[in-house]
Amino acid sequence: MNRSFRTDRKPFSLTKAGLILAMSASLLSPVGIHAAEGEMHRMYNPNSGEHFYTSSLAEAQNIYTAGWDYEGIAWVGAEGEPVYRLYNPNAGDHHYTTSAGERDSLVKVGWKDEGIGWTSDQQKRTPLYRLYNPNAKTGTHHYTTSSGERDSLVRAGWRDEGIGWYAAEPGYSAGLPFEDTRPKPSNPAPGQNPGGGGSQTGGGSQGDVTGQGYYVNTQSGKFHRPGCRTLPGYFDGKWTRMNVSRAQMIAYGYSPCKICKP
Prior knowledge:
The structure is a single chain. The chain has 262 residues and is α+β, with helices and mostly antiparallel strands. It has four helices and 14 strands. A four-stranded antiparallel sheet has the order 2-1-3-10, covered by helices on one side. A four-stranded mixed sheet has the order 13-11-12-14. A three-stranded antiparallel sheet has the order 5-4-6. β11 and β12 form a beta hairpin. Mean pLDDT is 75; it is low at 1-26 and 185-211.
């Protein structure tokens, strides 16, 4: 496994009101609580760009209610090597690593050790790719079982940092696994789904996307506006979100959807 990960990242302070969805301790599960086996839920903060992963439905529902998007199952876990979960109290984002050395280095510069988040499959059946965005100040790392999503992010300027850990099974599309307690808008804007929440606008109990950028189908090579009616109802491994300009999307070799005409 590639362990040459960055260990020089320092805490930074929130400077924009747009990061109000950063998680406080009251939204999270107790430190040290983790699950080796089972579904890992993938959450997305449309303001900060961070993805968050948890096996706890209560934790997922808490931050969903606070404004995060639910993006389905990131992977299915299994017994094995521990994956440490760290929290930056100044920036409000998380980091995950199997390296005790990386964990200790981040703790020394102000990160909070939240214990073992989950474990890496000892059979190494499904790799979790780790990527780094050198231009971001929060949500700088992303983890995915999708090689298509990995390749799309690399084309957009992310750095491939190899395999972060392993899962028993890859991620897959899934509906909201808990009651939708998010407040519903009375007069949603054009293109928004009054059902509330979620990373896609195609229907179901998901809702509008408030973040900027485009959705990319890594298989077809087409990119879409967040409100495009052709988007699926829920996160799927072949889809990824890219916060770049239209010109950059075309430069990366993607073609605009003929329905939403981004």
